[in-house]
From TrEMBL:
Signal peptide region: none
Homology family: Belongs to the bacterial ring-hydroxylating dioxygenase alpha subunit family.
Coiled-coil zones: none
Superkingdom per UniProt: Bacteria
Lineage, uppermost ranks: Bacteria, Pseudomonadati, Pseudomonadota, Betaproteobacteria, Burkholderiales
Entry keyword set: 2Fe-2S, Dioxygenase, Iron, Iron-sulfur, Metal-binding, Oxidoreductase
Domain Rieske: start-end pairs: 47-151
Organism of origin: Caballeronia sordidicola
PROSITE patterns for the chain: RIESKE
Protein name in UniProt: Phenylpropionate dioxygenase
Length: 417
């Protein structure tokens, strides 16, 4: 358990006042960052990709996570697997971060060669007594949930990933994300701590003032609001919001589409929340005109108004609509640097320029990601100012920040910090 000036990571967090933000040192200290990576990114399930990253046998995706690195591969039997990106000879990295396609995994140092099943197939000059069966690649626990890839870098992975699987598999089934392709993807480096990036994503207090593209497709009441002293106009808008939600929920329920909110945010290892939200305007998709960006809908759907099935975990947020999905996840790089990776998925048969215009598909979240990067950066800067004192969360628009903070504290305690 590391400490600076005698204050441990856990003790620092426990100095936080309930209902308030975290102390600035939790965002800026190197020892806290290293603990965070070890606990929250090496010992918990994290999103690390989508099956569309490895669509065909031989496709590989290497992902760096702190000092660790993994290789996600689709093998010759069409199974998605994950291995440590470490040669079993002298430890060289097998692949640089990124994607590609291979017949075998060949170490660039001494050419030890592995099959896509992880088995060592060739190692020259090792002698007749060498047993290659003892030098297979080290597997990484992996779970594919509705086309989303989750991995855990701890051999004893939390078993409550089953709850996420049981909840999301039927919700994502109508969209058949296994039959999608990546239309576009971006990597953004946000100049802020990963927890600030997550906090920013967990509240929409800021949305109406900073996200003009995103708010086109959201009903304002979904951002959260203070019910005290509502005007007559606001009361009418709230009644209309509730009526529209009820009608949409009834329509989806009639077709067997799961929509109600499911939250596992307390006393769990694998945190997540999901809900199907009504889309504003034309009600079809998160686009500037709120109509579908792709006329080739996901799965075998013919109905366009399927809302926004969102999912968030402690390192990801996803929005799945009738025509496309936007999948984002983050990986911490330094106390003040966070990689945010976003992938826009469309049906595998959708054709750019025929079924969709790329600019229409990516416009909303490309703008939103850039705006969020700026917000996280100024937030991080402020938390490192000597004058920073954590302020109170809004109970109406920032309740999930408090719950994330409590979960974070619980997981620190579970790992003895």
């Amino acid at each position: 358990m590391s400490s600076i000036n005698g204050t441990t990571h856990g003790a620092l967090f426990r100095s936080r006042a309930s209902g308030h933000g975290m102390p600035g040192a939790l965002f800026g200290r190197q020892d806290v960052f290293e603990n965070d990576v070890d606990i929250f990114f090496h010992k918990h399930w994290i999103m690390a990709g989508v099956t569309a990253d490895v669509r065909e046998p031989g496709d590989v995706s290497a992902v760096d996570i702190g000092r660790a690195s993994i290789i996600i591969v689709r093998d010759d039997d069409n199974f998605v697997r994950a291995y440590r990106n470490v040669c079993r000879h002298r430890g060289a990295r097998l692949r640089e971060q990124g994607k590609g396609s291979v017949g075998m995994l060949v170490c660039p140092y001494h050419q030890w060669t592995y099959g896509l099943d992880g088995g060592l197939k060739h190692a020259a000059h090792m002698g007749q007594h060498f047993d290659p069966s003892c030098r297979s690649l080290m597997p990484v626990p992996l779970r594919v949930i509705g086309g989303l890839i989750f991995v855990c870098l701890n051999d004893e992975a939390p078993v409550d990933i089953a709850a996420l699987d049981e909840t999301m598999t039927p919700r994502l089934a109508p969209f058949d994300l296994a039959r999608t392709k990546i239309a576009y993807e971006t990597d953004i480096i946000e100049n802020g701590n990963w927890k600030l990036a997550i906090e920013n994503n967990r509240e929409c207090y800021h949305c109406s003032a900073t996200h003009p593209e995103l708010t086109v497709s959201f009903l304002a009441e979904d951002f959260g609001f203070c019910p005290d002293g509502l005007s007559e106009e606001s009361e009418r808008a709230l009644a209309e919001y509730r009526a529209r939600n009820a009608a949409s929920l009834a329509s989806w329920h009639k077709e067997g589409l799961l929509s109600e909110a499911v939250e596992r945010l307390d006393d769990v290892a694998t945190l997540f929340r999901t809900q199907r939200l009504v889309i504003a305007g034309n009600g079809e998709s998160q686009t500037m005109n709120t109509k579908v960006a792709s006329t080739r809908l996901l799965g075998d759907n013919t109905r366009r108004d399927l809302g926004d099935t969102h999912l968030w975990t402690h390192n990801s947020w996803s929005h799945v609509m009738s025509d496309h999905a936007v999948i984002s996840y983050l990986i911490p790089l330094a106390p003040d640097r966070t990689l945010v990776r976003t992938k826009w998925l469309v049906h595998e048969d959708a054709i750019e320029g025929v079924d969709y215009a790329l600019s229409d598909l990516i416009e909303v979240w490309q703008a939103t990601n850039a705006q969020d990067a700026r917000l996280v950066a100024i937030n991080h800067q402020g938390t490192q100012d000597p004058g920073y004192r954590p302020g109170p969360f809004s109970p109406f628009t920032e309740s999930y920040l408090e719950r994330f903070s409590r979960w974070y504290a619980t997981r620190l305690e579970a790992h003895g910090v």
